[in-house]
Structure formats: structure tokens, C-alpha cells
Design goal:
About 70% of the residues lie in helices and about 0% in strands. The chain is mainly α. The longest helix has 19 residues. It is globular, with a radius of gyration of 19 Å. The mean pLDDT is about 95.
Length: about 240
């Protein structure tokens, strides 16, 4: 499908009900058809990985075309410059999180961008740093603990940011790192406890929000079970 054909398809699929639903979830997009995420994912699977198409779709400025671009872009061909360019154009939390969760976390540039974007003054670029950290923590099963431990000071530093979408992204990242492994759980809980005792309202909210999940019986039990399985694999005879 060409870009005009895709835009025509999106226009046919769009509904006012979906556009109203976006507004209820604080998804503000200047150009939106109102297409469900399920339909976008289905179309993305049909199109497959296509980097030139992804970049052309992004340039249209349409919300759904940009969502689709994150599904069809090739992580191996997604450069740091492209990541920066797209991040600067994030205008709502949904496109920010989708790009991080479905594309950016699969690139070799993820940790570099986490560090860089965490210092940004732009709301959705800064959120992207922590949405990306949460996404990598969930999806990259082979990464060592070291880069996640190195990211915890970034989390602690950004927690005082009172902007709603930033502080929610920071909490997501802290919870994601803390859930990743037993060895990361303790340091993450320590950060959460310091934040929960902070005089800064935003930091206090982040700390308490993270602690509720990280100290829950379900998370503690799951991490213990995971550690037991890992130990059994290491001691199993060859």
C-alpha cells in the first residue's frame, strides 16, 4: 500500500466515537481519524517492516499514521537521529509510549537515549526517557543489571518533576526496573522509599506509587519464584 492508500484506509476506518475516546484518555492529537489500536496493529502486521514507508507515514503528521509508523519501522534501521527527530515531535503520551514500547526499545541506542532524554525540558521527550527504560526492562531479557542500576539515579533525579505525564513515566520506569529481577528489586525499593519520604509532592507520589507495587505480595512472590527457577537451571546437570 502507498501512503495515500493507507491514509484513505485510515479515514474509512476512523470514527467519531474513537476520537471522543481519545479525548477521554487525554490523547491530544491535532490530526486524528479515530482508528482503534487493534485495527492499526492488524494493518501493521499486513504491511510488515518497511523503513521508508514508516518514515513517510510519520511525515504526514496524522496520529494514526504515526502510530502505524512505529509498528512498521525497522529497529535495525532506526538511527539515533531519527529517534531524536520523532521524540521532538511527540505531542501526546500515547504516541510517545507506543514508539518506545514497540520500536525504540528494540534498537541498540536505547540506553543512550534514556540518559540523554532524561535531561530534556520537553515534557514528552522526558517522558520518553522513562517510558523507554520501562520498555527495555520488560522486553530485553539478556541485558545485564548494570545499565538498569545506572539508570536509577536518573529516575530519582526526575521524580520531582510535577508534570503529570513525566511523573507517571518515572513511576512506570522505577516499577519496571524493580520487577525485572531480584537483584534489581532491592535497589529500586530503596529509591522508592527515599522518594516516598521526600518533601517534594511529585517525588513523594512517585515513591508511594512504586512502593505499592514493588512491595506487593504478588511481585515479591514472582521474583522469588523466578530466582528459584534460575538457580535450578544453573545447578541442573549437563
Amino acid at each position: 500500500m502507498t501512503v495515500p492508500e493507507i491514509l484513505a484506509w485510515l479515514e474509512r476506518k476512523g470514527t467519531k466515537r474513537n476520537r471522543d475516546g481519545m479525548a477521554r484518555y487525554a490523547i491530544v492529537a491535532p490530526k486524528a481519524y479515530g482508528v482503534s489500536v487493534g485495527d492499526l496493529r492488524a494493518l501493521g502486521r499486513r504491511l510488515g517492516r518497511d523503513q521508508p514507508l514508516a518514515e513517510a507515514l510519520w511525515k504526514t503528521g496524522w496520529y494514526e499514521a504515526r502510530m502505524l509508523a512505529t509498528f512498521v519501522a525497522d529497529p535495525a534501521r532506526t538511527t539515533p537521529a531519527l529517534m531524536d527527530r520523532w521524540a521532538r515531535e511527540f505531542d501526546n503520551w500515547a504516541i510517545c509510549d507506543t514508539a518506545c514500547f514497540h520500536l525504540f526499545d528494540r534498537t541498540p541506542h536505547a540506553f543512550r537515549k534514556i540518559t540523554q532524554w532524561s535531561r530534556s525540558r520537553e515534557e514528552f521527550v522526558k517522558r520518553a526517557a522513562f517510558a523507554l527504560l520501562a520498555s527495555v526492562a520488560l522486553h530485553d531479557k539478556t541485558a545485564p543489571d548494570a545499565p538498569f542500576l545506572a539508570a536509577l539515579p536518573l529516575v530519582e533525579r526526575a521524580a520531582a518533576d510535577e508534570r503529570n505525564f513525566v511523573k507517571k513515566g518515572v513511576s512506570w520506569a522505577l516499577r519496571g526496573v524493580g520487577r525485572r529481577s531480584k537483584s534489581l528489586h532491592g535497589p529500586s525499593v530503596a529509591v522508592a522509599r527515599r522518594l516516598a519520604a521526600s518533601d517534594e509532592p511529585a517525588a513523594r507520589w512517585v515513591g508511594k506509587d512504586a512502593l505499592r507495587e514493588l512491595t506487593s505480595a504478588a511481585v515479591v512472590r514472582r521474583l522469588g519464584d523466578r530466582e528459584t527457577r534460575s538457580r535450578q537451571r544453573r545447578t541442573r546437570p549437563a
